[in-house]
Structures are given as structure tokens and as C-alpha cells.
Specification:
9 helices; 2 domains; Rossmann fold; binds NADP nicotinamide-adenine-dinucleotide phosphate; about 35% helix; single chain; 7-stranded parallel β-sheet; alpha/beta
Length: about 280
């Protein structure tokens, strides 16, 4: 049995669907099972942290999204270990790397959880993706409303990764084994600018979208629904530092899954309906 946290999220949902399609027993945790709309073959269980032992009955592996247990992650993992879980695959972040600013709040969040995982007595694998393609959902309300998208740093570069490519790596790591103690850096296959992402969404929709750069101090938290408000200012500095700077690109997705990571244009085609009014 594989327990998946964050199971209704971008990566977790794709992972549950993949594991179910391989007939793997999956327990999907969510704060609200009524609204989860997960595959019928998954055992959908309410995430509750007061008696976590029950969440792990009969389980051998855990996919960990860091906000699932937050500050209670050590106790959560201890309950998992006592119930017989042996291996945790953590969705961490590419911000953790040699020479990183260890005071950056996104670094602190993920490094703190990685330390808790290392200290848990469980075997672990860390997935460290850089920017998710799903961050582009931040422009969905504007794109549904018209052809102009206001955002920050038009020329900031990244290599956004498709959430299903992260899920595909997690699937292989969980099912095949042999990745214990490994750290996998995950990215999309090519660099693209912020304005380029908006243009690619436009092509997927058959519309000509225009990116209009706004000063970062005019950007409100509403424009960044995927970013916890306390870390927004630090993240804006990260986007600024990536203006005109080629991003890290790895081939880890292909090495582990046998299939190359999908380009942002493919992600935009896969999600075109999410941007339609
Ligand atoms: N976005 C990026 O560019 C990026 C880059 C590197 C790493 N990451 C990592 O990936 C994570 C996001 O993964 P994702 O996009 O798959 O997740 P997501 O879609 O944002 O959320 C996953 C699920 O977690 C639950 N959840 C949300 N907030 C929660 C909270 N405060 N406490 C407990 N549960 C909560 C929700 O499920 P229920 O409502 O069903 O419980 C949600 O569907 C980030 O938090 C970060 O650790 C992100």
C-alpha cells in the first residue's frame, strides 16, 4: 500500500491516477474526501494529524507533500515508521542545491522538511523539481477575461516541468525501488521566458495573447495563488535574478521514466480547457 499526501493536488492527483492504472493499492489523503473526485480504485481517506497511525495501516511507502503535516511532520513520519512504512518519497524543491541562499524562505521550508525526513529512520528519496508548469494557472483568470496578461518579469527564464512528469518519476521510484538515498533534480526539457509561456498558452487556445510587464511592487498576492504569501517577496527576487539567465535543465525525467520531459507547449495544450471561459 502506497500512501499519497497532497493527493488532490497537481502532482498527487497525477500520481494517484498513475498508480491506480498500474493496479497498485493506493491510499489517497485529502482534507475533504467529499470533494476529492479521485479514481474509484483509490482508497480515499481524510487527512487528520491527531491519530496518524490509522492513516498508515498496512502501508509500506509514503509520498510526502510538505504542507500535508507541516510542523507536525516528525510525528507524522514516526507514526508511519511505527505502522511499517519503510520508504518516503518527498516532493522537495530544486531551490536546494550547492551554493544556494540557505536563508531564502522557500529553501528553509524544504530543507527543514528534508532534515526531518533524513532523521526519521525511514529510507528516503528526494525529488527536487524546479518551477512547475502549473504555476501558469496564475494567469488563468486574466486569460479567461481577455487577451492581455499583466505579470512580472517578461524575460525571466525557467524550464517549467509538467506535473505528470514529476508524477511519472515518483511512480517509478515508488514501484521499481532502488532509489533509496537518491536526490533527483527535475526540470522541463527547455528554457522559456515568462512572456513565452503566455504566448504558448495563446497558441494552444488559438488566440493572440499579449504579456504586459508590470512593476513587481504592483504585483499582489492574488496574482500568485501557488505561492504562500510570506514567501512572495523572496520569490519575486528569484524571478528577477532569472531575467536573461538560462535555467538548469536536467534529463532526469527521461533517465528514470524512459520518456523525455514534456515541453511547456505540450503542457499548454494539455491544459487549454483550464484557460477557457
Ligand atoms: N510550484 C512550484 O514551482 C514548485 C517548485 C518546486 C517544488 N514545489 C513543491 O511542490 C508543492 C506543490 O505541489 P502541488 O502543486 O502538487 O500541490 P498543490 O496542488 O498546491 O496542493 C496539493 C494538495 O495539498 C492540499 N493542501 C493545500 N494546502 C494545504 C495545507 N496548507 N495543509 C494541508 N494540505 C494542503 C490540498 O489538498 P486537499 O484540499 O484535498 O487536502 C491540495 O490539493 C509545493 O508546496 C512545493 O513544496 C513547487
Amino acid at each position: 500500500m502506497i500512501v499519497v499526501t497532497g493527493a488532490t493536488g497537481n502532482v498527487g492527483r497525477a500520481l494517484v491516477e498513475r498508480l491506480v492504472s498500474e493496479d497498485r493499492p493506493v491510499r489517497a489523503l485529502t482534507r475533504d474526501p467529499q470533494r476529492a473526485a479521485l479514481p474509484a480504485a483509490a482508497e480515499v481517506v481524510q487527512l487528520q494529524l491527531d491519530d496518524p497511525a490509522t492513516l498508515f495501516r498496512g502501508a509500506s511507502q509514503l509520498f510526502l507533500y510538505i504542507q500535508a503535516a507541516g510542523e507536525r511532520t516528525a510525528a507524522f513520519l514516526e507514526a508511519a515508521r511505527q505502522a511499517g512504512v519503510r520508504h518516503v518519497v518527498m516532493l522537495s524543491s530544486g531551490i536546494i542545491r550547492e551554493g544556494a541562499d540557505e536563508t531564502h524562505p522557500i529553501h528553509v521550508m524544504h530543507a527543514t522538511t528534508e532534515r526531518v525526513v533524513r532523521d526519521s529512520g525511514l529510507q528516503w528519496t528526494f525529488l527536487r523539481p524546479n518551477a512547475f508548469a502549473t504555476n501558469a494557472f496564475q494567469w488563468a483568470p486574466q486569460i479567461r477575461a481577455g487577451n492581455t496578461v499583466r505579470g512580472v518579469f517578461a524575460d525571466s527564464q525557467s524550464a517549467p516541468i509538467h506535473e505528470d512528469d514529476i508524477a511519472a518519476v515518483a511512480q517509478r521510484v515508488l514501484v521499481d525501488g532502488g532509489h533509496e538515498g537518491a536526490v533527483h533534480r527535475l526540470t522541463g526539457p527547455e528554457a522559456i521566458t515568462t512572456a513565452g509561456q503566455v504566448a504558448a498558452i495563446g497558441r494552444a487556445l488559438g488566440r493572440d495573447l499579449h504579456f504586459v510587464e508590470m512593476p513587481p511592487d504592483e504585483a499582489s498576492a492574488e496574482l500568485f495563488p501557488h505561492v504562500p504569501p510570506p514567501v512572495l517577496q523572496a520569490l519575486l527576487k528569484t524571478y528577477e535574478a532569472a531575467v536573461g539567465v538560462p535555467p538548469e535543465i536536467t534529463t532526469t525525467v527521461e533517465k528514470i521514466t524512459g520518456t523525455p520531459a514534456r515541453a511547456f507547449a505540450t503542457w499548454a495544450e494539455d491544459h487549454a480547457d483550464d484557460f477557457r471561459a
